[in-house]
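Ticket #4471: complex job returned nothing on first submit. Input attached below:
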Amino acid sequence: MKRFISLLFLLLTLTACLPQSSQNSSDSSAEYIENKGSDTIVNLALAWAEKYQAENAGVRISVTGGGTGTGIAALLNNTVDLANASRKIKDEELAEARAKGIEPLEYVIARDAIAVIVNPQNPVSQLTLKQISDIYSGKITNWTEVGGEDRPIVKLSRETNSGTHIYFLETVLRLGNKEDKTLFSTDTLLLPSSEGIISEVRDNPNAIGYDGLGYVPHDLKMIAIAKEAGGAYVLPSIATVNDKSYAIARDLYIYTNGEPTGAVKQYLDWIFSDEAQAIVAELGFVPVKQ
Amino acid sequence: MEKSLSLREFIITRLIQASGYSAILFVALIFFFLLREGLPTLSEVGVTSLLNVRWYPIEDYFGILPLLSGSLIVTLGAALVAVPLGVGTAVYISEIAPRWMREILKPLVELLGGLPSVVLGFLGILIVSPFLRVFLDLPTGLTAFTGSLLLGGIAVPTIVSVAEDALDAVPRAFREGAWALGATHWQTIWRVTLPAAKSGVLTGVMLGIGRAIGETMTVMMVTGNAPVLAVKLGSLFHPVRTMTATIAAEMGEVANGSQHYHVLFFIGMTLFLISLLVNVIASSVIFQSKKRAERVLS
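Support reply: We reran it on our side without changes. The output follows.
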């Protein structure tokens, strides 16, 4: 008897739920946006998705990392709407896309710049990319060799699992040359957090470090960098990153399959809004517009 | 009635027995897990690559010698700091300090033992390392020595509490005998009490060292994590990278089942074997000293 009543109760609740749920879905017909790719961008993409979903109840955005390659592969298999990439799509990938009838469209959604920082007491204020490479690979070990005081150079870096570490290795140590096998000198200190690098640079006049532009506090000295010897020395800032005169900066991309429509288009438009670009700055990246 | 009592007795005894055996079971399970995840490294990476002097896993340099030497030098430094300080404190508390001092010191030392290691790490970054850089005129304060000092601080409470118990357990008659023979206070401590408590003091020292070598957070924060092969005594004043810090820093991002993943487990296995070795040496020393004591008594 008891069992019968509970069963009846269950049935009643179910029927009570039914019309309501069908009403819900006809109201806003929940839209799903699949977003996948670069681990560098994943935190930014998550922050965007969270904010956007809070404002637009009918939209569900799923964000996953896995790397730029994974994201683009997913776009080519037509399993995602948006692919996040920290590099441009490769020619092979583009050819494969065309063969599959997919037309990747590119959007620069933010920029990522790395500032090289030293202690404010350090008289050195400008370096060439080559000099920074030589410092980190251990060819230059004293500040006198780059116009500073007679002090040993203490090199600070992020841990090897950080995206910033790999980008710095490729762009600065190897000067963008893929064949180059230069490595960080073994006595480079690998610190587990940005905070560790910043506190050591703040305290130690021998130190040189690097970090995402947005994370550098005002009391540290940023180095002006020249792309080659004799070139102009440029300080990192939102302006110099956006006009591409600063050397250690890259564009961050989102790729779509063809011209986006509907919810995906609205989301992309929102990404370029002031509100979304403010999140870009908050996470230490450079907004594409101000 | 009597029967149920004996049954209850039986069950309780078995339960206690099982919890005793479970320690063995857990250690065995952990070891087999480490073996299963770590041993594939020997064929994947190879012994010669593992004995390389460069650790840079994202480009497939898997030399673990710098990490091994880093851990050893930090632990050695910590032992040099902690053993004299720890045994000294234990002797003071148990033999010299007046009663009221004892009652203050003991809980304070135990409090020190409860200090979270990450707090010690903060202390290291903000105070110890800047101070050492200026005081010793080093290029950077993030060195093996900084790690040793802080690890010494972590090991001291362990050493003190075990050693102090051991000293306390020495029968009062031993000391009175020494005094009766005209020994001074110091002679009594050094020639009678300490040797009598030797096995307990040694256990404390080994436990302390075991804590130091397994400690992760503090060393990751203050030793600089540079994978340099530390072979000279001067390396104590340079940055090093320990095995524990490497596992902690890299495990989170590594792909499950990859070469790098297996190497990290291999490092964990090595760490496990080292602490096993330390314990075996400790217990064999204690065993020998016991045998000698028995000989003397008989």
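The CA atoms of residues 95 and 152 of chain A lie 50 Å apart. Closing as resolved unless it happens again.
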